Amino acid sequence: MKNQMVAMILAGGQGTRLGKLTRETAKPAVPFGGKYRIIDFALSNCANSGINKVGVVTQYQPLELNEHIGNGEPWGLNGGDGGATILQPYSSADGEKWFKGTAHAIYQNIAYIDRYNPEYVLVLSGDHIYKMDYSNMLEFHIAHKASLTVGVIPVPMEEAPRFGIMNTDQTNRIIEFEEKPKEPKSNLASMGIYIFNWQVLRKYLVEDQAKQREMEDFGKNVIPTYLENGENCFAYAFDGYWKDVGTIESLWEANMEFLDPDHILNIRDEEWRIYSKNPVSPPQFLTETSDVTDSMIVDGCYVAGEITHSILSQNVRVGNGSVVRDSLIMANVTIGENVTIEHAIIGENAKIADNANVIGKNGEIEVVGYAEVIGGLKDEDE
């Protein structure tokens, strides 16, 4: 897809529903599955789909995300004729500095896209967990002579009001779009994945900015305008695993699902690897007092306690007598002795003191934030 299609990953979201976990970093940079970050899935999908020109649009707390992506080398996106490019807000001639919405973020980066003069632009969200071959979606787009193709996935009808819903005819043509409808007419939810004919989208964005300045968001503005103007809009149905991990509950659930060796995501698939940037850490060490069941333990971990159905990310230390159940422990966490952690997410660099308890109750997931300290830590030199 050398110059046929450029990918734009929208990765500037604050992720307020993730609370403590996104106070220091953008949602796409939140750790996932022990050794990954959420954005790794979109980047790996691009690499595996043969897309080597990827713009990553950042905004909120971008430092950690920028460092993680770098020049795109872990994903093979550091080639001379393309690569991964970090695109951040800047002060333009009209005085605008921040992206006002998804479509406005693309408008602000027209110059980047024009460098490659692509026929198509693939717009992605940087905060979903899934595997998808975008080349199949592009073939669908071309075959249907579409101006816009929206990736959709069927969701339970009771969950449909949470999503943008595409109503289609028998040919998969989109005839109506409903943004989070109270009484949805279908269950085809937008995945936040779009393929546009670039020159058509460019014309809409440039003309709007010169006049109304209303086309700020794809869901609220661009798609309805396309439909009103009779553009060929089609829905591409995806039948694989896809998860929006925008809430504490969904993030915890996706990580717990990740522990299943028969998970449909199939993280061990050599034909479709999920790549990431990982620090070099020593091998994990399990002491004679450790007891590990149905869990993922990543490099650098020292475990002297009991771990059940949990994920321990890089360089986690678990003291003697401690119990971790049904939990995600992010990187560089120190867990003291005789600690109990259940139904929880522990943020990066947190410290849990001896004898402390972090337990989610009544179906709620307990969360410890980045570098948060729970309990009274004793002096490490003692």
Automatic annotation (TrEMBL):
Residues 289-364 form the Glucose-1-phosphate adenylyltransferase/Bifunctional protein GlmU-like C-terminal hexapeptide domain. The record marks 59, 98 as: Could play a key role in the communication between the regulatory and the substrate sites. Pfam families: Hexapep_GlmU, NTP_transferase. CDD domains: ADP_Glucose_PP, LbH_G1P_AT_C. Its EC number is 2.7.7.27. Homotetramer. PROSITE patterns: ADP_GLC_PYROPHOSPH_1, ADP_GLC_PYROPHOSPH_2, ADP_GLC_PYROPHOSPH_3. This is Glucose-1-phosphate adenylyltransferase. The gene is glgC. Residues 7-258 form the Nucleotidyl transferase domain. Alpha-D-glucose 1-phosphate binds at residues 164, 179-180, 190. The lineage of its organism: Bacteria, Bacillati, Bacillota, Bacilli, Lactobacillales. It is an enzyme of class 2 (transferase). Involved in the biosynthesis of ADP-glucose, a building block required for the elongation reactions to produce glycogen. Catalyzes the reaction between ATP and alpha-D-glucose 1-phosphate (G1P) to produce pyrophosphate and ADP-Glc. Belongs to the bacterial/plant glucose-1-phosphate adenylyltransferase family. Pathway: Glycan biosynthesis; glycogen biosynthesis. It comes from Trichococcus pasteurii. It catalyses: alpha-D-glucose 1-phosphate + ATP + H(+) = ADP-alpha-D-glucose + diphosphate. GO terms for biological process: glycogen biosynthetic process. PANTHER family: GLUCOSE-1-PHOSPHATE ADENYLYLTRANSFERASE (PTHR43523:SF2), GLUCOSE-1-PHOSPHATE ADENYLYLTRANSFERASE-RELATED (PTHR43523).
